[in-house]
């Protein structure tokens, strides 16, 4: 590649072709930058430009997106908040839904930078720039590294487990409800990791199990009570999308979990009193069918978690 001398004072730097072979524009670079998704929207959330990576991620062509209005109400509202504040937003963790190869939608955890698009030669805000990347681009490898580093082992009912903290005080049987047989430690905690394509199968516990989200994709708990009540909570880091850092699987209820996005989820689970292997139970095939009869609207998820 031959270097050429250019008098930068005589040209608009925004029109300067890059000294590559062949020459590239800034638009060429932004479209081809690996792992970076970029779009520009006006104040009315009409796409002024998107790069090829963005179009490919949402399953469309650039020309099919440019000139259309962003239809995602939550994202439009958030863009307007940033523009109204006049302050760029950096390193913002959020969740978006993207299409899969089979046409379904999956959650993707991203890190977003939102800049302000100002009128040329002035300070008036006329739109917004959005640049984001996957929060866990090498999620499968990260999951394997965590399993190794935390010395996690398969649970036998889905996912991986590693013991965490325990208390040094023992509770006697007369201090416990009748459903517990024998003594128990005052509490126990463990790490739990669920990888993409896996499910935590239905089971029940004598204790309430508190869940604390650490990192990865969002994970959803499903619980089914004997009184015919179905409850669910989504654990994750995107509170704007209705996710929570904490959740509870109530004692005596059948519960399981599914991953909502790619990669993995890492959580901690805490039980008081401490867990003992006699505190867990799995439903029989007959009980699964009875649950389907009691919860027909959740039959599909019950089949996944059986």
UniProtKB/TrEMBL annotation:
A Pfam family of the record is Cupin_5
Domain DUF985 positions: 145-279
Q: Which InterPro entries match?
A: Cupin_DUF985, PAS-like_dom_sf, RmlC-like_jellyroll, RmlC_Cupin_sf, YML079W-like
Chain coiled-coil ranges: none
Q: Which domain of life is it from?
A: Bacteria
Q: What is this protein called?
A: Cupin domain-containing protein
